[in-house]
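Q: What would this chain look like folded?
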Amino acid sequence: MDPITLAILIIIGLFILLAIGLPIGFAMGVAAFVGYTFVLEFDSALSLLGQTAYETTITYNLSVVPLFILMGYFASNSGLSEALFGACNKWLGYRRGGLALATIGGCGAFAAVCGSSLATAATMTQVALPEMKRFNYDNQLSTGSIAAGGTIGILIPPSVILVLYGILTESNIGDLFLAGFIPGIMTIIFFMATISIMTRIYPKMGPRGNRTTLKQKLLAFKDVWGTVVLFLIVIGGIYRGIFSPEEAAGIGASGALALSLISRTMTLKIFFNCLMETVRTSSMIFTILIGAILLNNFLVLSALPDAVGAWIGGLDLPSTAILVIILLIYLVMGCALDSLAMILLTIPIFFPVILQLGLDPIWFGIIVVMVVELGLITPPIGMNVFIIKGMAPEVPLGKIYKGVLPFVLAQIILIAIIVAFPDIATWLPSTATR
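A: My prediction, written as C-alpha cells:
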C-alpha cells in the first residue's frame, strides 16, 4: 500500500478510536503501532514502541513537566488564589464589574505560578464565584469571566502546553516562555476591556463593589509578594540566562513549597496529595506524549507531512493566507478536541509547512496556543465551561457559553493583531541573554 494512503487511513482510524472513547494517548499509540506493523513488521514495531516509551521518559528536557505541575499544585493548596483575588479586588472592586476585573487579574497572576488553564478555572471558580453571587452579579458575566480568565493559564509562563510544543518542534522552551509573556498581559488587558464595555452597556450585570483606602490597597500586597518574587525569579532567571527552564522548574516548585510553608497552609497530608496528583497528571501527559511521538515518527516515515507541505506550498496564496487557513482549522478542531490533543495531533503535520513558509516557529507557537485557548471555552467541548458548570450546577450551560462569547471575540481580535505584528511575541526572546 502507498505510504501516504496508509497514513491517511491510520489518521481516520485514530479518530474512530477517539470517537469510541479510547484515551487519546493510547489511541495515538495504537494507530501508530498498526501503521508501523504495515510499513515494517510486528517485531520491529513492538521494539520501536518500547524504545520510544523509554527514551521519552528519560529525556532531561521533559523534567520541566512534572516540576511545573508540582509547582502548580503547591500554589493551588497554599491559598495563593484567594490572596491574589483579594489583592486585585482591593484595587479594582469598586469599579463597575470590579469583581469580574479582579477575577481576570487573579487568573493572570495565578497562571504565573500554575501553568494549567483547567486548574486556574477550577480554583478561581471556588474563590470568585461566591463573591460575585454575593454582590448580585449576572451569572452570564460571572461565569463567562472565570471561564475566559482560566484560559490565560496556558499562555503566561510557565506553561505545560508551551513545553510540549517546544519538545515536539525542538524549539527553545525558554524563548517560548518569554514570547508568551507580552501576549499574556495583552490577553488580560483585552479581557478587562471587554468586561468594562459590557458593564458600561449593561450596568446591572456587574454592580460596583466597596471602595478601599490606599492603605488597604498597599497592605494587600503583603499576601502576594511571594508570588511576585517567585515569578520574577523563574522568568527573570530564564531571561537573564542565569538558569535553564529545567532548573527554573525546580526552583519554581521549591519556591511554591516554601511559600506554602511560610503561609502555614501546607500539612503533611496536603503535601502527599500534591505529590500524588503530580504523578497522576504527569503520567497522563507522558502517556499522551509517547503516543504523539510514535504517531509523529510514523507520519514522517510515511512522508505525509512533506506531501501536505508540498500541496500547501503549491497553492497560489501568500504565507499569511495559508497561516489563516491553518488557524481556522484549529478553531474548528477546538469545538471537538481539547487543547493538548490539538497540539499533539496537528503540530507534526502543520509545523513543516510553517518552516517551509519561512515563518518564525516561536511566533507560530504563541499564536497556536492562543487559538487553542479558544477551544477551552467554545462549544460543544469547552473544558473550562464544563468545569464551571460542574461547580455551579444551578447556572444553565447555555448561559455560560453566552457569557464567554464577548471574550472569544476579544481573543480573536488579539490573535489578529499578533499575526499582523509578530514582534509582539518575538521581541522579548530576542533581547534575552544567551
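Residues 3-430 form one domain.
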